[in-house]
Fold:
Amino acid sequence: GQQLNQSPQSMFIQEGEDVSMNCTSSSIFNTWLWYKQDPGEGPVLLIALYKAGELTSNGRLTAQFGITRKDSFLNISASIPSDVGIYFCAGLGPRNKLIFGTGTLLAVQP
Amino acid sequence: DTGVSQDPRHKITKRGQNVTFRCDPISEHNRLYWYRQTLGQGPEFLTYFQNEAQLEKSRLLSDRFSAERPKGSFSTLEIQRTEQGDSAMYLCASSLRGQGAPTDTQYFGPGTRLTVL
Structure:
């Protein structure tokens, strides 16, 4: 099935560092969502973006909906060990299907 | 405040057996979705309901798969004659679509991990 291009594939950082990841698509989306998934659990919604150009924050997380509507990025500032997990972007496609990215694995060393 | 719940959390079955999973959406959410996730991949859409009507089915949903949402509340996903390739995490999500609600912000349950031996 279709998946969005998400990069980087994995990141290994020290506690306290900032993190940036992005997601690109060949298709336009009207809604972008960012989720975090822990092993064996379902994705947990972090940030939802509804308008091109929108910049939204949730605590240490900031996400932007690209002007072209074909990309989005997520920044995490001052990372902590509990930020470890897999981060997925998702675009809301036709007929209400979420199209997910390939995921970014984040590891944080204390 | 209860989120989306799924039961069971884990299911191990032998090839050829039938399995059924249940999803309870967030209360008052009128849309319910099923996704499948295999190891190392993002979730892939299977089907969705608005109230009790099944409005969309993916080509991933073979004839062996059937989903229902009889009263517009909980949903079941049944897989008949399971195959080893059906081994995956089955995720349910729900959303509220209506006046004033953001467009289909989907909230996921914890998933059911299926292993077919």
In short: DSSP finds no helices and eleven strands in chain A. Residues 86 and 105 of chain A are 4 Å apart (CA to CA).
